[in-house]
Amino acid sequence: DGSLVYLYRINNDVIALAEENVLHLRGLGNGTTGLQKLEFMQATVNESAAAQNSASKIFGNSGKPTGVLMTDNVLSQDQRLALQSRFAEMQSGSDSRLYVLEAAMKYQQLSISPEDQQLLETRRFSVEEICRWFDVPPILVHHANVTTWGTGIEQIVDGFHKLTIRPMLVSIEQSVRKRVMTSKQRATMSAEISFDALLRGNAKDRAELYSKNVQNGIMTRNECRQLENLPPIDNADQLTAQTNLAPLDMLGKITNGGGNAATQNPIAN
Hints:
By secondary structure, the chain is an alpha+beta fold. The protein is built from 9 helices and 8 strands.
């Protein structure tokens, strides 16, 4: 009937599962079968590997390019073998050694220099290209080609959370709600992945947030302490709110008890 069926293999047994009984978190693909990103970005990975291999060969050879020795004289076989052996020693020797070319020989470079290959630029671009595939800012993988610091990086990280992580988590939440929960459970329950740990601010920002939440009756003091991994304390499970934002005609009035109005009154849960 065209419905999707999953075949799940356990040892030598194969179990057929209906689509509604499988939680399938798909990546890139055709909507039915998810494909790994490495399959899509194969060209990028191959280019990065080739650049790395080229850099390894260049630096492994002390940065010396390959080339040929040219001469106007005709050399015998023994002379060629001796020259090849000598030239191989020149290629693999230390940079601090001085070599002399005999018989008016000239050296002609064959391989392209790292500058002409734009090797460093290519390797930097490979890092940025791979980050682009995974929607990750290069600064998060310690890519050095970044001149923004302080609040600039904070904004980059915040954008990464909002534009990359959050959409992915929302997709997972919706899949869990659709595939895992029954219709009755969906009426009273929800699936949510906590994002607080990733967005956890510094101590000053957290203190200001807790203070506002407690003063406005949004959180109790023990709830704030729990978020800071602190033990609960007595008489701190009640919501409270400030009452100093009173109407103008109530300013200066005295409470029935004869004292000033309390700055904070409890709110019934």
